[in-house]
Design goal:
heterodimer, A: 188 residues, Rossmann fold, two-stranded antiparallel ribbon, B: 177 residues, 6-stranded parallel sheet, 8 helices
Chain lengths: 188, 177
């Protein structure tokens, strides 16, 4: 599977102004490439904090569904956050992990998922029982649809190729934040 | 001298809780700390607050940042050594995105510290805050708690800037052997 393709498939299914948090690097670059919705937040630093940011949005707006897009390297940096998500059990939160087994953006050095670590199993061990691997693109769409219709928290992991993003997100943090706040109605 | 049992004045933690409430700070994230325990326990017991214990201080900052962007005010509670894990999260998230992450830090490492590790870490705290331009105030007196907490929250929110409140052992009694 391919990250940009999966991101486009996710975004195409969002029709209720769902919030999407794009983690550092190619994950948010591909979210940018998939179409710049006002409810998208692009994380340009703070590696590992996409899940916590998504948790904060989910807590503040329990009626809005929140999707977090994260890479394997980033998630591994902040694994404790998975146990916090399980403890809080926000019904409106879905974590999508794009696992290419490498730190692609820094030169494709392998992550531990390339050797032995299993993201969905780690998540289940942290208490996120609704965690699974997407077998292919159709399965990914099925899992997204389930997350849109039924109570979470959900974690969907997907093995992806090593393709970098074709574009980079505009690096204007204040503008990104302001646009997101207006997009989710936190600011008029 | 610290006198939480005095009947004349409310305790420092009672004043902080009330001031957070008055400023609509409803979300509290924390990594536990002995000195902050009475504040954490007070907030946990109050239904007004949503209180989340996290595994790391960075995570606590991320949650408060996300909540702010979705319309909910929050505060992060930690001790000095926890703050030392935060420069990247503050310098690459809270500061450039202009997110008013409010931090309350119980100060370890000074005024009778017994752990040399805490002493060294404490010396890094204010230089880090200063170097990334995050305003901080050290609270030493109970009669100043309300004013400093209240004004710091208001300034953080209106100027969209993170802020740090350092609770001195002079206020809290600190932690001793």
């Amino acid at each position: 599977m391919n990250r940009l393709d999966l991101t486009r498939r996710l975004v195409a299914r969002l029709d209720h102004q769902e919030a999407v948090i794009g983690g550092i690097g190619n994950t948010n670059f591909d979210l940018w490439a998939a179409g710049q919705r006002p409810q998208n937040f692009y994380m340009l630093g703070s590696m590992g904090l996409a899940v916590p940011i998504g948790v904060g949005v989910a807590l503040a707006q329990p009626q809005r569904r929140v999707f977090v897009l994260e890479g394997d390297g980033s998630l591994l940096m902040q694994l404790g956050a998975l146990s916090t998500v399980a403890m809080l059990a926000p019904r409106n939160l879905t974590i999508i992990v794009m696992d290419n087994g490498m730190y692609q953006i820094t030169g494709a050095q392998p992550t531990s998922t390339a050797a032995s670590a299993d993201i969905a199993a780690i998540a289940r061990g942290a208490g996120l029982s609704q965690s699974s691997w997407a077998g292919d693109e159709q399965d990914f769409e099925r899992l997204v649809e389930r997350a849109l219709r039924h109570d979470g928290p959900w974690l969907i992991a997907a093995h992806i190729d090593g393709e970098p993003s074709p574009v980079q997100t505009e690096r204007d943090p204040a503008r990104i934040r302001d646009r997101f706040m207006r997009g989710v109605g936190a600011k008029q | 001298m610290v006198s939480d049992n005095s009947s004349e004045q409310p305790s420092w933690h009672a004043v902080i809780a009330e001031t957070l409430k008055r400023n609509q700070v409803t979300l509290v994230t924390y990594v536990p700390d002995r000195v902050l325990a009475p504040l954490i326990n007070r907030l946990r017991a109050d239904e007004f607050f949503t209180v989340v214990g996290t595994t790391r201080e960075e995570e606590a900052v991320g949650i408060v940042a996300g909540a702010w962007m979705a319309g909910m005010r929050g505060v992060v509670l930690m001790q000095t050594s926890g703050f030392a894990t935060l420069p990247n999260a503050l310098a690459s998230l809270a500061v450039p995105y202009q997110i008013p992450v409010l931090m309350i830090i119980s100060e370890r490492g000074t005024l009778g510290e017994f752990n040399i590790g805490q002493v060294m870490v404490c010396r890094t705290m204010r230089p880090i805050l200063d170097s990334i331009g995050v305003e901080s105030h050290t609270i030493t007196r109970r009669d100043e708690v309300e004013f400093i907490v209240d004004r710091t929250i208001k300034q953080a929110v209106t100027t969209q800037a993170p802020a740090a409140l350092i609770l001195s052992p002079l206020l809290t009694g600190g932690k001793v052997l």
